[in-house]
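Bug #77: duplicate submission created two jobs. Keeping one. Sequence:
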Amino acid sequence: MDIGTIVGLVIGVGAMLLSVIMGGGDLGGFVDVASIIVVFGGTGGAILIAFPLGRVFKVHKIILKAVFTKPVDAISAIKDLVRFAEIARREGILALENVIEEMRDPFLVRGVKMAVDGTDPELIRSIMDTELESLMERHGQGKSMLDTVARYAPAYGMIGTLLGLIMMLKNLSDPSAIGPGMAVALMTTLYGALIANVAIYPVADKLVARDAEEVLLKTIIIAGVMSIQSGDNPRVVESKLLTYLPPSQRTMYEQASQEQAAA
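Kept job's structure:
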């Protein structure tokens, strides 16, 4: 579970609730059923029009990925690949078949199996690159759906506000009702802004960060499999893969390696 996402949502919502309470406002006054129907119903209808039904029913899975996705550990992946390179160098690449069960990433398993089977290196790279591109395409589709939700919600909030103003202006016989009527009319704009900026846009940005991490991991795996398949020295494999990490993570990797060697 990604604690940062949960904490961020709690802080964002809590800050607004606290400001209302400190300002002497009534939280119950910010609940309006008609406004909720306009914003949520209108946004839901627009999404059904914009995307295939099958993708719409999976939008909750996309949102949950921002919370429950396991963090990517590129350093551990490099350590494993270097270890596999040592086995292949010492015992031959066919010996990797005995350690496939230890491999946690299905993407890595497929690459190693192809290398063990003697598949042409160019074909291995082509297959793995294609799978990576497909992954990026799926992630892009998920983010585009969230971006669309974040665009439509404020738009329907504004539509609800216009509807409320029209109805209010048609009934100006009671001046005392203008203030409350205006407040209700603006409620839909508030709901739309909250949906977009408190929840959907931040979650979409988190998914972009997760996508970048996963793409980096799979890029490292592709480079590692190709290097192992070509018979590179484990030190060469390590040097190649470390180039994908930022300096801070390279330092962490080196420190961990030194501690492991000392132990």
